[in-house]
User: What shape does this take?
Amino acid sequence: MLPKRKVVLITGAGSGIGRALSIEAAKRGMALVLAGRRQDALAETGKLLGDGVSCVVVSTDITRKDDRERLVSAISRAHGVLDILVNNAGVVEGGPLEGCSDEVIARTFATNVVAPMSLTRDLLPLLLAAKPSRVVNIGSIFGDIGYPGFACYSATKFALRGFSIALRRELEAKGVGVTYAAPRATKTDAAAAFAKLISETKMSMDSPDVVARAIWDAVVAGRDSVYAPAPERIYVLIQRLFPKIIDWSLARQIH
Assistant: This one.
C-alpha cells in the first residue's frame, strides 16, 4: 500500500471510472483533488469518500487553458506538491467515420489527447516537487485494437498510449513514472456508445470498482501498464504479433 497522504488529482471524477478511482484512492488513505466539469457530480463523489478524507473539489474544463491554470493554483495552495496525476477525463464517440463531423473529431481529440498532454505539462513542476511521483493515463483496449465503427475514439486512445510510452522514457530519470491503463468495456454511462457492439459481440464488461482496484494495484506496484483480463489481454498480444488474425475476426463480426 502507498504511504498515507499521497496527493492525487483525478480528472473526470464525477462519474464512472473516475468516481470509482476516487473512492478507491480514499480507501488507500490518499488526499484527493477531484476535477470535472459538473460541480454537482463532483460533490456527489465527495459524499461517497467517507469521513476524514482530505478532498479538494475543483469544477473545471481541462480543455481550457484558464481552467487548467486555476486547477494548478488550487493544488499549489492546498498541498504544494502532486504525487499522482490521473488523466481519466474523456469522451466516447461511436459510429462510422462518415458520421463524425469536424466538431466531433476536434472535441474528441481535445478532450482525450490534447487536454491530458497539456495538463501533464502544466503540473510537471508539482510532480517534480513530489518525486518519486506518477502520471496515470486512462486509455482503452481500443488503444491497441482499432475497432471499426470507433475510428475516431480508437485514434485518440492510440495517441494516448503513444504519449504514455514516450513520456515514461522522457521522465524516468527525473523520478516521474507513467502508467498506462487499458480497461475493456466498463459499466458506466459512457458505455451507451458501445451498447450495440456489446450486444452483438457479447462483450465482457467490468464494474468500475473492479477496474479502479486493478489500476491502483498497478500504480502501487509501479507498473508501466495495466490491461484488461483475458480474453482481451490475449487479443492485444495477437494484435501485436499477428494482426491479420484480428482483421479476420473483426471482419466476421461486421458481416
About this structure: The longest strand covers residues 176-182.
